Amino acid sequence: MPSTASSLWYVDDPDPVAVLRRRPEPDPEAALALAKQLHPDCDVIPAASGSLAAWAGPDPGSIYIGCFPGLTVVCTAAAAVTKPTRLPELLIRPLASEHTYLVSYDVPRAWGAFAHWERGEFRRSFSATRVTILEDEGLPLVWERPYWAGEHPVPLRPGERPDPQILPFDPPDFAGEANAEWLGFHYRAADSDGAVHPGDIPVSGFTLFPKGQAPAVAVPDDGESASHTKWFGWLRNRDRVG
Questions:
Q1: By the 8 A CB rule, do 148 and 168 touch?
Q2: What is the pLDDT of residues 158-181, one digit of tens each?
Q3: pLDDT, tens digit, for every residue of 197-236?
Q4: Is the pLDDT of residue 1 over 50?
Q5: How far is Cα 242 from Cα 228, in angstroms, rounded to an integer?
Q6: In DSSP terms, which residues pair with 116 in a beta bridge?
Q7: 86 pLDDT more than 80
Q8: Is-contact 10 93, C-beta < 8 A?
Q9: Residues 6+ away with beta carbon under 8 Å from 236
């Protein structure tokens, strides 16, 4: 299961999990067009592709997109924002979708975030580490109640003493539950037989180069375990946790 995720979902279908369960073929041409739309100042080159299980939390310099009938997922470092309400307008509704969902987390840093926009209008956002709430905007949703009530406490190691200000839940799990509520599957939690798994969701990968600096020849590598060796720190990263 991915230890990090930084994903945006643009959803029109009222039953997105049914779409994913059918395992539709992705549209790589639509994915390339969207990658270019989101990065007008970059050269966008097709690169490694695979599934959400491998590419849910990409590094800066790459983007992974799955375009399906009724929904699109974009995995990008730009979604790993400590304050989701600061997400650029271009990322909130590039496809005029009915719903936009942000789900991001980083298990090693014990951070998680989620947000929802409806027809581009903000509805709800949350972002926190185990001891610090970074953003909590909009009305809490019904499914959040058990988490705030302490029914999903932070797992502690034997002998570990919790911080006096620790939240009553683990933020990555909280973000994961938002994903399950909105999209019908978990990134990390074990699911029942027949449930959608991140490995069932294919995405097309693209490497981002500063305009005019793309290599003359780019050979895509479709192996899911392939690694990218060219990352560029020129992308703004000030909102990423850590």
A1: yes
A2: 877 878 899 999 999 999 999 999
A3: 999 999 999 999 999 888 875 445 544 433 333 333 333 3
A4: yes
A5: 22
A6: 101, 124
A7: yes
A8: yes
A9: none
Q: Which of 152, 143, 142 is nearest to 173 (CA)?
A: 152
pTM metric for this prediction: 0.87
Residue 55's identity, in one-letter code, is: W
Name which of 15-24, 49-58, 124-133, 224-233 the model is least confident about. Answer: 224-233
Tokens 């490694």 found at: 48
Q: How many CB atoms lie within 10 A of CB 14?
A: 10
- Token pair for residue 116? 């929802």
* Confidence at 52, pLDDT banded by 50, 70, 90: very high
Amino acid at 235: L
Structure tokens at 147: 């988490």
The Cβ-side half-sphere exposure at 193, using a 13 Å CA radius, reads 0
Distance CA 142, CA 217 (A): 51
The string of DSSP letters for the chain reads --SEEEEEEEE-SS-HHHHHHT-PPP-HHHHHHHHHHH-TTEEEEE---EEHHHHSSPPTTEEEEEEETTEEEEEEGGG--SSGGGS-HHHH-TT--SEEEEEEEETTTTEEEEEEEETTEEEEEEEE-SS-EEEEEEPPPGGGHHHHTTSBPPP--TTPPPPTT--SB-HHHHHHHHHHHHHS--SSS---TT---GGGSEEEEEEEEETT-S-S-------TT-------TTS--TTS--
